Amino acid sequence: MTETRRTTSGHEGLAFEEPLSFEIGSPDKTAVDLPRLPDGMRRHADETLGGLRRQGPVGLTGLSEPEVVRHYLRLSQKNFSIDSGFYPLGSCTMKHNPRLNEKLARMPGLGDLHPLQPVATVQGALELMDLVAHWLKTLTGMPAVALSPGAGAHGELVGLMTIRGALEARGDARRRILVPESAHGTNPATAVACGYTVEAIPANARGRVDLKALKAALSDDVAGVMVTNPNTCGLFETDVMEIAAAVHAVGAFFYCDGANFNSIVGRVRPGDLGIDCMHINLHKTFSTPHGGGGPGSGPVVLSAALAPFAPLPWVVHGPDGFMLAEHADDTGGDPVGRVKGFHGQFGMFIRALGYMMSMGADGLHQASADAVLNANYLLARLKDVMTASFDGPCMHEVLFDDRFLKNTGVSTLDFAKALLDEGFHPMTVYFPLVVHGAMLIEPTESESKETLDSFIATMRALAERAGKGDVDFFHEAPRLTPRRRLDETKAARSPVLRWRPPAVDQAAE
Amino acid sequence: MRYLPLTEADRRSMLAAIGVRSVDELFVDVPAAARLDGPLALPAHADEMSVEQAFRRLAAKNLSPAAAPFFLGGGIYRHHVPASLDHLIQRGEFLTAYTPYQPEVAQGTLQALFEFQTQVALLTDMEVANASMYDGATACAEAVMMGARVTRRNRVILSGALHPHYRDVSRTYGRFLGLDIVSLPAAWTGVEDLAGQLDKSTACVVVQTPDFFGHLHDFTALADACHAAGALLVVVFSEAVSLGLLKPPGAMGADIVAGEGQSFGNGLSFGGPTVGLFAVRERLIRQMPGRLAGQTTDVDGRRGFVLTLSTREQHIRREKATSNICTNSGLCALAFTIHLTLLGEKGLTGLAELNHAWAVATANRLAAVDGAEVVNRSYFNEFTVRLAKPAAEVVDRMAGRGVLGGIPVSRLIPDDPALAPLMLVAATELTSDGDIAALADALAEALR
Predict the structure, then answer these.
(1) B345 or B318, which is more confident?
(2) Residue-averaged pLDDT of chain A
């Protein structure tokens, strides 16, 4: 099909080409043998379908089990993953995902529970949720936690809902949320989804929130301030306690985006910094797998002022054991409502608790130290050939910008693509927006010194190569990946978002 | 500590390279008052065996559905998950990858999402589907918000037979956006007048089939009425297997379809994580929330896949995004896709037939129990039973006998005396004759 093919089959050794499942199957095949329909059942069946039997085929294909296994195994091999290599994607905390936790999540009596079983039959599950809550509250120094949010951005939304709930309960209609430039990109979208208008606060020359600008923007119309701490420049907000005081002085609430909690877990309790609520990405700090983009889990810790507004359901201690308060009247509080089906991402609670128990207080204390140490080691070993955006020390991630590529003809994107050929996943690029051509590197505590040294040697060699003006090398990268650079403009201009049978394609043309 | 690779010697040499004496110096930006002296009052690290033991103790305090005749549904269903599926989703390359930001090394995830989107579009008979939402309830709430956004209208009508969690999540989201959410009284008999609720301010009507009480509906006429009033029809489902047997929402004229995909490939897991499905008409693509995988070519002309239309998304649009969702249900979506690929057309149809057949067998048997009356004329794999006693009491008594026999409607919709006698009963391909007999006995005894 293309001239670049070097073999007849299209495969290249262990690098297999794999078509879509729809292109290789036949509707007659199946990989699932079902038990026979009990005799006589079918005869009565149609009467209860209300004349709504589906007309015509769904249009799925069919494959045998060996074909399905091979298909998805080959697809898996086209992915970069933490298991396969260094994945220093800034602000994403790509740490090791322990397999013990997968085993725990599949344990009979935990992984197979139905959420609406009588509570007397799920006391262990409720105890598990209570344990997760205990760990999270102790680690953050906060009195309450809402477990139900399904992901980080969902946690942000729930945090803001509790803030709005608390304000409305005291008859205080405020309209604005302040969001610093160094905050996560989701924060402004979240504030709007909660019915607020957003005002951006600039960063100062040190990569932190401009305290003066923040104070100037604060008024009795501000509902809350959303600060990511440590922020997306990889820096601790040195003025955080002063920010909290200023926010509280105007009667507003202090939301902390806890996506970067991994750098301080076990060493700093956000509750001691004066925050009112913070979401925690269990899929970052607490090692639950990212799964190619979810499922995540985003519990929100809450101050005493916000706790009564936590969404449903609540796990509560009752006289005969644990109870689930699934309706507002059962809580004794003023919950903002329900934000997700059932009780939250229980499967992720199992995994996160497995991680926390495995690491323990001492292990978590060491993990944040190692995460910060690894990032600072990269900074120390790369700052003479790349341009660090801010003076160190950094926290768990280090921010470089593209000044070192100035006049080379090589962009941040080119640099990232060259890393792919070297067997490293690139850092986060072009984020945060506060510097030009950002490269945000988060090594996590899961990496050995040997891996870091190998990455450092590669980065140094690439920086040198860019400095020498070897532009073609970068523009043609990546060469060795399952696909080379993909045409994103074409994808967006004429979107093809699903497979269609060839016959329909021809008819459309 | 088994998850931490650095040795003490490594740490010392790295600190030296940085030019500091201790790691504490790296935390200098943290206000001194907020720095903890040592580890917190939590247990110390534990070996694998101890952790497993602790979880086994927790599991032992629960009644596993595998150990009981089991008839619970209510928006989440116990289906068989093929062994090959669990093996495949535990491939480290799928499990431990992140959102495919670098498509050159994420073709596995992207192609699987493209297959997922195709399958969801086919099942629902809609043109386009996204790459998943958190769950059915949040997908429903996103559909409500999208309905308001598209029509620039404010009033949303929720059917009284919509799953109560979907209703509640939609209300929560809607409240903060200032939407006028009208939710109709519980329609447990399967009959309600929705078209009569339409007016010029109505953004969308949200209905469900099979509905929360198990009734099946054809919403074709309602779709016409919505469109005549300038409103959108949102059709919701919580049991995706039903689409293998029943007329799909797309064929009824739905504009947006939101549903729960857990039934394919995802276990119960006490209610989460699951996978929200979201499909729309072609003309609405750019108003759709969530991530989308799209087909394109690479510089060598080879077909490949990327995340596309991201100009709708939060990380580009910030406050102008269509939704704040970013992480979705990637691995659950993969499980859904692998299960449907394993089933194929033939397996899907067979699975759906089997579910319905077992529900018919269960309903027929329960109808013969004194004090129990099957309410539904139509149903797929779940139906409502009206009991001579409060359902909550009956369900607890059956559980005391080791039978997980159903869900009292009052657990989800309390404070309505008319609903107190109602119990939802679901059957799947895992139901057996023995389970049905055990249920009938337990129910008869509980009603005695």
Answers:
(1) B345
(2) 94
Domains of chain B are 66-81+345-447 (3.90.1150.10), 83-339 (3.40.640.10)
Q: How confident is the model at residue B314 (pLDDT cuts 50, 70, 90)?
A: low
Contacts of B446 (CB under 8 A, 6+ apart): B389, B393, B394, B397, B398, B401
Instruction: At B69, give phi and psi (nearest 5°).
Output: -55, 130
Confidence of residue A391 (pLDDT cuts 50, 70, 90): confident
Instruction: Give contacts of B308 with chain A, Cβ < 8 Å.
Output: 488, 491-492, 495, 497
Neighboring chain B residues of A371 at a CB cutoff of 8 Å: none
Q: Is the pLDDT of residue A505 over 60?
A: no
Asked, for residue A327, whether it belongs to a domain, the answer is yes
Per-residue b/e over B342-381, b at no fewer than 16 CB within 10 Å?
bbbbbbbbbbbbbbbbbbbbbbebbeebebbebbbebbbb
Domain that holds residue A419: 361-473
Distance to chain A for B225, nearest Cα, Å: 20
Euclidean distance between CA atoms B154 and B143, whole angstroms: 13
> Is A43 part of any domain?
no
| Residues pairing with B237 in the sheet | B259
For position A182, what pLDDT does the model report? 75
Residue after which a domain boundary falls, among A355, A388, A406: A355
Q: Given a cut of 90, is residue B90 above it in pLDDT?
A: yes
Q: Which residue in B has a C-alpha nearest to residue A148's C-alpha?
A: B272
| B169 vs A contacts (CB less than 8 Å) | 337-341
B83 shares contact with chain A (CB less than 8 Å) = no
- How much is the pLDDT for A422? 98
Selected residue with higher pLDDT from B442 and B319: B442
pLDDT at B318 over 80: no
Q: Look at A150 and B272 and tell me if their CB atoms are within 8 Å.
A: yes
The Cα-based distances of A273 to A229, A230, A270, A509 in angstroms read: 10, 12, 5, 62
Nearest to A448 among B6, B92, B103 (CB): B6
pTM, whole model, 2 decimals? 0.97
Domains identified in chain A, total number: 3
Contacts of A278 in chain B (CB under 8 A): none
Identify which of A100, A99, A102, A82 has the alpha carbon closest to the alpha carbon of residue A447. A82
The mean predicted confidence, pLDDT, of chain B is 96
- CB atoms A45 and B353 under 8 Å: yes
Element housing A103 (H / E): helix A99-105
Q: Which residues of B touch A447 (CB under 8 A)?
A: 5
Residue A120 and residue A196 in one domain: yes
Tokens linked to A17: 């080409």
Contacts of residue A104 in chain B, CB cutoff 8 Å? 51-52, 55
CB contact under 8 A, B178 and A195: yes
Place of tokens 């993953």: A81
Do A195 and A73 lie in a common domain?
no
Element (H, E) at B171: helix B164-177
Q: What was the pLDDT predicted at B302?
A: 96
Of the listed ranges A87-96, B35-44, B419-428, the one predicted with least confidence: B35-44
Selecting from B165, B166, B272 the residue whose C-beta is nearest the C-beta of A346 gives B272
Q: Are strands B293-297 and B276-280 parallel, antiparallel or unpaired?
A: unpaired
Is the pLDDT reported for residue B424 higher than 70?
yes
Say which CATH number the domain at A236 has: 3.40.640.10
- B283: CB partners within 8 A, 6+ apart: none
The per-residue pLDDT for B425 is 98
On whether both A373 and A414 belong to a single domain, the answer is: yes
pLDDT, tens digit, for every residue of A117-174? Answer: 999 999 999 999 999 999 999 999 999 999 999 999 999 999 999 999 999 999 998 9
Q: Does A187 share its domain with A271?
A: yes
Judged by CB atoms closer than 8 Å, whether chains meet at A295 and B30 is answered as no
User: Are A297 and A199 contained in the same domain?
Assistant: yes
Q: Would an 8 Å CB–CB cutoff place B49 in contact with chain A?
A: no
Reported ipTM: the value is 0.97
